[in-house]
Amino acid sequence: MPTDVASLTREECWELLKREEFGRLAYTLDGEAAIVPINYAVDDGRLVFRTAQGSKLSAVLRGGTVAFEIDDIGSEWASSVIVRGSAAELPEEEARWADQLRLRPWIRSEKQHVVAITPSEMSGLRFRMHRPWMSIYPQD
Amino acid sequence: MPTDVASLTREECWELLKREEFGRLAYTLDGEAAIVPINYAVDDGRLVFRTAQGSKLSAVLRGGTVAFEIDDIGSEWASSVIVRGSAAELPEEEARWADQLRLRPWIRSEKQHVVAITPSEMSGLRFRMHRPWMSIYPQD
Asked: What's the domain range around A15?
């Protein structure tokens, strides 16, 4: 591994997962890859998100492995965490707890179902950015 | 659809795809969902990225549909574009053209293979953010 790429420890992965609240969920739908951006929260070692009834809900609950990604892109360093695991809908009683979490959807819409992903694999990378062309643009 | 969510036109999707250069690729690996962040460029109606030999390359070339997501998160509005399509490795001669593209990996590493995704479906959303809690933090 080049010296400008470093693996994140499991603890660092969790730290980043707790800090962010927006990621992308990949799942299979009729055997094909699908991806969707979601708001999520970390709760008791799981990633919890709300969703409406629909193909996303059906697909993620079908028992297969889902994958989830977050990233944090800075000007010199970027980090990305990838989680794989199984998804299950929370029973109504437990789902109500989700309102106590930092589970704040960015869009107002009806999303009645609460799904929890239990990670089976987790990996993270932190890498130095090589974007020499950025120096010709004003920096943020 | 709530009034604070709007579909992007195909043209707006392409605009955003051309403006960004970092997205997430979802694919299936042994029937399970996988996701990976990638640098990409738009070339002649395709999304082109570099990759090393490995499971990602094998999986995306196995002929199935891959999915790709980019997003642009602002303080009041966010946009997300999702592309589905098939992936194919470019032949060596054509791959050399990739060096002429704005295909600038953010990490230095050996990525000899150039893959092009030809979109079969594309959709984009622009949504107003509802993050009242943001107002208690200093804004960027």
From this structure: 5-124
Please tell me whether the overall predicted TM-score, pTM, comes out greater than 0.90 for this model.
Answer: no
What are the CA-CA distances from residue A31 to residues A34, B5, B33, B65, B68 (Å)?
A: 9, 29, 9, 9, 16
Task: Give me the number of domains chain A comprises.
Answer: 1
CATH code, A69: 2.30.110.10
- Put simply, the answer to whether A131 touches B106 (Cβ < 8 Å) is yes
Within 10 angstroms of residue B132's Cβ, the number of other Cβ atoms is 8
Q: Is residue A74 part of a domain?
A: yes
CB neighbourhood size of B109 (10 A): 13
A27 contact residues in B (CB cutoff 8 A):
33
pLDDT for B62-79, tens place per residue?
A: 877 999 999 998 877 889
CA–chain centroid gap for B45, Å, is: 13
Asked whether residue A134 is domain-assigned, the answer is no
Reported as a single tens digit per residue, the pLDDT across A45-68 is 999 998 887 777 888 888 779 999
HSE (CB half, 13 Å, CA atoms) of A31?
3
- Report if residue B134 sits inside a domain: no
CA distance B93 to chain A (A): 26
Q: Give A130's contacts in chain B (Cβ within 8 Å).
A: 105-108
The three-state secondary structure class of A22 is: strand
